[in-house]
Amino acid sequence: MASFITVQLKKTSEVDLAKPLCKFIQQTYPGGESQAEHCRAAEELSKLRKSALGRSLDKHENSLETLLRYYDQLCSIEPKFPFSENQICVTFTWKDAFDKGSLFGGSVKLALASLSYEKICVLFNCGALASQIASEQNLESDEGMKAAAKFYQFASGAFQHIKDTVLSSLNREPTVDISPDTVGTLSLIMLAQGQEVFFLKATRDKMKDAIIAKLTNQAADYYGDAFKQCQYKDTLPKEVFPLLAAKHCIMQAHADYHQSVLAKQQKKFGEEIARLQVSFFFMGKK
Q1: Is pTM, for the whole model, over 0.70?
Q2: pLDDT tens digits for 50-62?
Q3: CB–CB of 113/83 below 8 Å?
């Protein structure tokens, strides 16, 4: 069975959203049913946060839907309520997903009174959980392959969005796990893994060699770019590096093998031999 890279979820501290939101609502909105309704909604939001972040999540689409529902609620309330140190002050504390701590100190964490920070961390967990759900799929079935590719593509998009927005959203240096360099690399890895699943399906469906060569070439490029981005930076777990290097070589070997088949069909025997030599070279490097 193929090995795929998954991402650890970030951990957070418990937060009571209902109390500060209700206080702001009572000070801002007139009394009566409208005020009570807004307070009930604030209490539901606090319960949703606990459900999405306050427990271990199963590697299942239902858990991802809970996370996404909380993320959507944050996006909805952000323009309506002034979350800041001077108004609705709620401090969100999150640990670095990849930092295991040290013998003499705890793991790296960052606490900010910023709803944008909460959104970024929740979206990170959406991408991380999607990567875990994808890795659990049965790649022996068409449904499993389609689901795995879908979740890897979702994870890639989530990490890419964080890369594009994190610095402008926080206006300060984030923890390493949500830094642009790290999430950019994670996005590439997820894209590569989605492409690898497409390759596995194409092989299983006995598609044309030209299609398989194109898919594997793209996967090799993604894995190669991800490896280049992280090999000189101490951001991802060390065990990721050799796997990325091996995946790059395997995908490139498959690409050159299928290109050699095409060359043979076109009676380009010199190219066929050259492609096979390159394929054997990459298989030897993995």
Answers
A1: yes
A2: 999 988 888 899 9
A3: yes
